[in-house]
From TrEMBL:
PANTHER family: GLYCOSYLTRANSFERASE-RELATED, RIKEN CDNA 4930402F06 GENE. This is N-acetyllactosaminide alpha-1,3-galactosyltransferase-like. The chain crosses the membrane at residues 6-23, 101-123. InterPro entries: Glyco_trans_6, Nucleotide-diphossugar_trans. The keyword Amino-acid biosynthesis does not apply. It is found in: Membrane. Pfam families: Glyco_transf_6. Keywords: Glycosyltransferase, Membrane, Signal-anchor, Transferase, Transmembrane, Transmembrane helix. Its cofactor is Mn(2+). Coiled coil: none annotated. It comes from Microtus ochrogaster (Prairie vole).
Length: 342
């Protein structure tokens, strides 16, 4: 009888060990399993950007489909969605069936913004953001009790973190970069291959998918994408680390959307955070806070992909011939109420 009990216990122990090996994933294993390979570490193969993006002249309003540093500018009619899907399936077939491309979506929800915007943002992201891909939505908020109860579709999950609420909305804005960089370094880079950082006062209106993925992705600003460099609101104070001299620059980017591979977004946010903190030590505040520093980063380190204003459009502004299908729209702004200081 004693031997039977020992054998039974041994079998149970072996079963538990097998389950542990099957379901236990270290952070490194997660990174290996879910990493979305960048151009640096993709399998050795040949392909052309023209397989995915159609080049040439666009409308008279927005002629650029590629930049002078050869980064594609993505508009509704400039990408081949089926070709993109075939590409990922072909080269990542071994991993694709079990683990679709993993994309992180980082969103901050603090103060009055939390109750006012977060629910609608999450509902629309659940419908339109990276459909059929594995998505982790990283919600960073200052009050767990206000987290909306929204059931997510398959392949999607939340990871919720508590963040400190700053007294001034300007400080909240500028601390985004530091907090994002810390979370990417700590765990996000081991869980997803691509990361998008977005403001939550927006609503997805259409499919936002594989066409947006790239090494480093920047968003053209609705109000400034047609203006000359001398007219856009770069930081002009020479003492600021976000300074871009008059006559230099070229494209003005919106901080409401930026992304890329986890490695690249870590570099972007870390460098911006360093510059923001250096300015803070010297009692300097850039004119558009973290957006000014993001523009300085992309001024020095050109993005590898640019999203047209269709991917972040203010519907209060009349659409031009450039804007065929809005993918993500600004929500109504009530700054006089939402930005009240603590």
């Amino acid at each position: 009888m004693r031997y039977k009990i020992l054998i039974l216990l041994l079998l149970v122990l072996m079963s538990l060990c097998a389950l542990y090996r099957e379901y236990h994933f270290s952070m490194m294993k997660l990174q290996m399993t879910y990493q979305c390979w960048s151009l640096e570490n993709q399998p050795n193969h040949s392909y052309q950007q023209t397989d995915f993006y159609r080049y040439g002249m666009n409308s008279a309003h927005m002629r650029m489909r590629t930049t002078n540093w050869s980064a594609p500018t993505v508009l509704t009619d400039t990408y081949n969605e089926s070709a993109l899907k075939k590409y990922y399936k072909k080269y990542y077939k071994k991993y694709y069936k079990k683990h679709p491309i993993a994309v992180g979506l980082v969103v901050f929800a603090v103060g009055r913004y939390l109750g006012y915007y977060l629910g609608n943002f999450l509902i629309s992201a659940n419908t339109f953001f990276m459909v059929d891909q594995r998505v982790i939505i990283y919600v960073m908020l200052d009050d767990f009790s206000y987290m909306p109860l929204i059931s997510l579709n398959r392949l999607r999950t939340y990871k919720i973190s508590k963040v400190k609420r700053e007294r001034r909305w300007q400080d909240i804005s500028m601390m985004h970069m530091k907090i994002i960089s810390e979370h990417i370094a700590d765990h996000i880079q081991h869980e997803v291959g691509y990361v998008f950082c977005m403001d939550m006062d927006q609503i997805f209106k259409g499919s936002y998918g594989l066409e947006t993925l790239g090494e480093s992705v920047a968003q053209l600003h609705t109000y400034w994408y047609k203006e000359s460099p001398n007219k856009v609101p770069y930081e002009r104070k020479e003492a600021s680390e976000a300074h871009i001299p008059l006559g230099q620059g070229g494209v003005y980017y919106h901080a409401a959307v930026f992304g890329g591979t986890a490695t690249q977004v870590l570099k972007i946010t870390t460098k911006c955070a360093q510059r923001i903190m250096n300015d803070k030590k010297n009692n300097i505040e850039a004119v558009w806070h973290e957006e000014s520093h993001l523009n300085k980063y992309f001024f020095l380190h050109k993005p590898t992909k640019i999203l047209s204003p269709e991917f972040c459009w203010d519907l209060r502004k009349d659409k031009t011939p450039d804007i065929e299908a809005v993918k993500l729209s600004w929500n109504s702004k009530h700054y006089e109420f939402l930005r009240e200081e603590v």
